[in-house]
Write a structure and sequence with these properties.
13 strands, 29% strand, globular, 10 helices, alpha+beta, 35% helix
Length: 292
């Protein structure tokens, strides 16, 4: 079970703090393999998927969907991830092979790869219109950007920690994170003590490397406030693309484009952005689609 990715949900300080933590090494490694990402892109995507997986399970509805789009001026240009309320997450970078020198701290320069830009958080929770929260990127390092999103768009004071550590062979060694949120009635004394504790955390990857699980991560941060774990949810990289969905996408390009593909007399390969799976359509199949 040690290698499985999962999310825990907890409360502390008489339910005035709510917290989530995730271990996501497999998710980040799966994304790396599917998109053949460079280490810096793996780290960026791994962080955002870890954050999105936790934010996904905050949603109540079975069919609720969360999408986070990051668009920046850096060489990576951005990325998109989607998560549901069941621990499933998927994502893709716009540019997968960015390589930059390490930042001032000798770490992967995710902020440099993303650059200045915007983050859109789109929640489809069964209303007529999805909820959209748009914020300006603070650092492009993702955790700080999500912290800022919670404070400005949802008015929930939060602390987000995310980390991805790479092996020498560029596979994912560690990935995970936490989200800690204060309820409106959190006592000031608790807030002060918590801020001190969080300020003392070196990095999420250091803690994961020390062998911390999502549970012990939250124990470590919130142990003084009485942590109660309320749920454990398996998490995984999951894409729900299918041949039918790709067919719908082909239909949406319009008759003229479709006819041009048929006239080419060559099979058409369509790849899913999120998981890179390729679907091939022969000319005969394209003719069938056009008839419909």
């Amino acid at each position: 079970m040690m290698n499985e990715d999962y999310i825990v949900r907890a409360t502390a300080a008489d339910s005035s703090i709510r917290a989530f933590a995730v271990t996501s090494r497999r998710i980040a490694e799966e994304a790396r393999k599917r998109h053949n990402t460079s280490p810096i892109v793996t780290a960026a995507l791994g962080r955002l998927m870890s954050g999105a997986a936790m934010m996904g399970v905050m949603m109540k509805g079975d069919k609720d969907l969360l999408t986070i789009q990051v668009r920046g001026s850096g060489p990576m240009k951005g990325m998109t991830v989607t998560a549901d309320s069941h621990g499933h997450v998927k994502g893709y970078p716009i540019v997968a092979d960015v390589i930059l020198p390490p930042n001032g701290k000798g770490k992967l320069d995710v902020g440099g790869a993303i650059g200045a830009g915007m983050m859109n958080v789109i929640k489809d929770i069964g209303m007529k219109e999805p909820y959209v929260g748009q914020t300006v990127l603070q650092t492009g390092e993702i955790a700080e950007d999500l912290t800022w999103y919670f404070v400005t768009s949802e008015q929930v004071p939060s602390s987000v920690g995310l980390g991805v550590l790479m092996n020498k062979d560029n596979t994912v060694r560690q990935a995970g994170g936490f989200i800690i949120q204060l309820m409106p009635f959190t006592p000031d004394s608790v807030i002060d003590a918590l801020e001190k504790k969080i300020a003392g955390i070196s990095s999420v990857t250091d803690l994961l490397e020390q062998g911390h699980t999502p549970e012990s991560l939250l124990e470590y941060i919130l142990g003084d406030f009485g942590v109660e774990f309320t749920e454990k949810i398996p998490a995984s990289f999951f894409c729900n693309c299918s041949r039918e969905r790709v067919e719908q996408a082909i239909v949406s390009i319009g008759k003229e484009e479709l006819q041009a593909m048929i006239d080419d007399q060559k099979p058409v390969e369509v790849k899913c952005d999120f998981c890179n799976k390729a679907y091939t359509f022969e000319t005969e199949e394209l003719k069938e689609i056009l008839k419909r």
